[in-house]
Amino acid sequence: MSIDELYREVILDHFENPRNKGALDPHDMLEHGYNPLCGDKIDIYLNIDDAGVVSGISFDGSGCSISQASVSMLTEVVEGKPVQEVEDLIGQFKGMMLEDEPNPFEDDEDLEELGALEGVKNYPVRIKCALLGWTTLAEALKKFHESR
Length: 148
Ligand code: ZN
What we know:
The protein is an alpha+beta fold and 148 residues long. The protein has helices at 3-16, 65-78, 83-98, 127-146, and strands at 29-35, 40-48, 54-62.
């Protein structure tokens, strides 16, 4: 299996078997994201504990396979991480997708699946699809800081 095929499998698997999908009940925060270019919709449900750690995250949404697979992967990797670390991760992901930085997740067993989305860069109109969940979470975290 080529690396491209492997990556396609990863994306398809997350699309068909989304992780952490459905409303998180109860939740502290709910943020809506929308990508008008493609019609993708994503809601992020988020709990952050007193220590500033993401203690719960889930999503709901509809749209193309890339948008939904990307947010499914996102929920898997941020659960249990401190907000600061999550924000660094969002920055790294955006760097990979938008700034031609090399895939920063290659050597990290917990994050390497995210590299599957790097191939989306070959289809510029889909980059916003891959980023939607991440920008929606970033917006939620911005509000979290403002509320403190
Ligand atoms: Zn899309």
